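Attaching the record inline, Q. Sequence:
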Amino acid sequence: MCDTLLQRSEESGDKHMQIISYCIKLDYFYYKNDEENILKQTDEVKKVCLRLDNLKYYYFAWGGRLITYY
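Structure, as predicted:
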């Protein structure tokens, strides 16, 4: 589902939904308690946020998921 959302948002140029698709995938790993993938996906979200200049979700990934997991 996230991959489809990412693909369609890239095709349409919707930067906000691109970031959301990465965050949804992060949430999936977060609620599954998959520590290894939480760390990987947090890095992915942060990279995408910096590339697309959207720090709101950068801090969501860092503070809202990574810190609260530990």
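The mean pLDDT is 87. Residues 35-52 form the longest helix (18 residues).

More tomorrow.
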